[in-house]
Amino acid sequence: MRWTWASRPRRRPRVFRKLRRPLERLGHNFIEGIWGIGVMARFFGLVLASSGTSFSRFRLVMREVYFTGVLSLIIIIVSGLFIGMVLGLQGYQTLQRYGATESIGVLVALSLVRELGPVVSAILFAARAGSAITAEIGLMKTTEQLTAMDMMAVSPMARVVAPRFWAGVISMPILALLFSAMGVFGGYLVGVVLIGVDNGAFWSQMQAAVDFRYDVLNGVVKAFVFGIAVSVIATFQGYDAPPTAEGVSRATTRTVVTSALVILALDLVLTAFMLRDDG
Amino acid sequence: MLNSSPVSETLVDVDSVTFSYGRRPVLKAISMKVPRGKVVAIMGVSGSGKTTLLRLISGQLRPGGGAVRVAGQAVHELDGEGLYRLRRKMSMLFQFGALFTDITVFENVAFPLREHTDLPEVMIRDLVLMKLEAVGMRGAHRQMPSELSGGMARRVALARAVVLDPLLVLYDEPFAGLDPIALAVIGQLVRKLNDALGATSIVVSHDVQECLEIVDYLYFVSEGRIVGEGTPDEVRASADPLVRQFVHGDIDGPFPFHTASRPYAVDVGLAPPKAAPGV
User: Fold this and answer.
1) For the packed helices A117-125 and A162-188, what is the interaxial angle rounded to 10 degrees?
2) How many Å lie between the alpha carbon of B45 and the closest alpha carbon of chain A?
3) pLDDT tens, residue by residue, A75-104
4) Is residue A14 situated within a structural domain?
5) Does B96 contact A at CB distance below 8 Å?
6) Predicted ipTM beyond 0.95
7) Which residues in chain A have their CB less than 8 angstroms from residue B95's CB?
8) In B68-85, which positions are buried (b, 16+ CB within 10 angstroms) versus exposed (e)?
9) Is residue A30 part of a domain?
């Protein structure tokens, strides 16, 4: 064919060609992310709409509270104890410089009830119970148990998802409180029993500094919100998992990673809302 | 094509149904009628659309065109509540049973009774043991599904499928992966339970010989179309090459041995892509 200007090969500059793929992938991932948030929000709405059975047959929720909450007790209690002990050690070393070692109880208690209690217990809860919920629902989907239930005119959202969601929402604040309580006990063990800080000063300063509504209740509110977030993520990932071994495995990983990031992001937002001017 | 059609009252009416997964057409204007009280088999090679047909009948999928009617109701026009009302009159046996793995055999069979009736516990116990006795699994009622073999799990799932005395039972590959004895047991149970309960059964299967023994009528599906139908005697005597190949299990014939692909010579580099026909 004779070469003409109109028939010239039209190639985009090399820089465009090189950038095209990554840009496409970035755009695709962004749109997928937005889409995913929308799908999860719709799923959350469906869970709430399907929650009637969970309350009319509360034993379904209590059964899940046992699996998600009671079976998480060991890891929560042990972790709380150790974190409280570490806080006690670190706090003592710092406070010693200012001659304020009696305030070690305040430091441990405020750190725990305001921040570490809700945040660390929520992350542990996501790793222990959230991953289990995702794997269980994902495998139920893979082995057609959810379809079988649907074919029996029993809604899997009402019978499987909603009870697990509410169990997580109920368990999380209780676990966070237990975590904080065990942490304070760990701080007491290190500060009072091991190092020898005055017992009366430890408890009385803590009592004076920790406000029930502002500190404890706000911590419970945080834990409640984290419970909703982790439970929605865990149930959604399980319900949405591709029905394969790899699909369930990826969904379980996504539950832990997404939950941890969402917990930290929500903590920032909630803390900003809950801060008050002490002056 | 075999020329014989069911004449008694129709329970399931599939009328010119089309269905596609994305752009890939799976069913192309398929029509069939299933009379009340009969056992009808839908047969075909993997990927021919027979399980899709079963899912359309049960309302798990909605057709792209045409109509599916069960007991006079257009399944695809029902809303969620209407579909669940219809599903209380039908049940489905899944390929691997889909038993709920966290509850015992007894609780699995009792599940539909507990969800849909207010029967006293004594009556539930009697009904469950009666159905388990019918499938020869009464002795295993305390066992967990993980303790059962594939054939035993399938029998328990069958007991669960018929515990509410359904109008219509759908079987998705009920003979897959079973040894010859378990296969014969399931086959006989399908027939006997259908006759004893006065139900109607649709069996999707690859197993021609077992189906020829137990069903009243067979449909052969290939590439989304009905390519053969008839009573077992008509099918055995059929001269249709497609039906003959399926019944006798010939390697090659109208169902090609090879999947659609480029010429072998092109794939192994012995011929240039453009020179070879059919590229």
Assistant:
1) 130
2) 22
3) 999 999 999 999 999 999 999 888 888 889
4) no
5) yes
6) no
7) 144
8) bbbbebebbebeeeebbe
9) no
The token pair that represents B13 in the structure block = 């009416």
Residue A113: which domain range? Answer: 50-274
DSSP per-residue letters across B122-149 = HHHHHHHHHHHHHTT-GGGTTS-GGGS-
Q: How many domains does chain A have?
A: 1
The residue to which tokens 């060991």 are assigned:
A74
Residue A227 has φ and ψ, to the nearest 5°, of -60, -45
Does residue A19 belong to any structural domain of this protein?
A: no
Residue A28 lies in a domain: no
| CB within 8 Å of chain B, chain A residues 133-192 | 143-145, 147-155, 159
Q: Is the pLDDT of residue B7 over 60?
A: no
Question: Has this prediction a pTM greater than 0.90?
Answer: no
Predicted local confidence at residue B251, as pLDDT: 66
Confidence tier at B279 by pLDDT (50, 70, 90) = very low
CATH number at residue B184: 3.40.50.300
pLDDT tens, residue by residue, B76-98: 889 888 999 999 999 999 888 89
Confidence class for position B4, pLDDT limits 50, 70, 90:
very low
- Spatial distance between the Cα atoms of B60 and A256, rounded to a whole number of angstroms: 31
Q: Given a cut of 60, is residue A193 above it in pLDDT?
A: yes
- Mean pLDDT over A268-272 rounds to 93
**Which two three-digit tokens encode residue B262?**
């480029």
Residue type at B249 in one-letter notation? G
Give the residue numbers spanning the domain of B208.
10-94+166-254
Question: Order of strands across the sheet with B225-230?
Answer: B90-93, B168-172, B200-205, B39-43, B217-222, B225-230
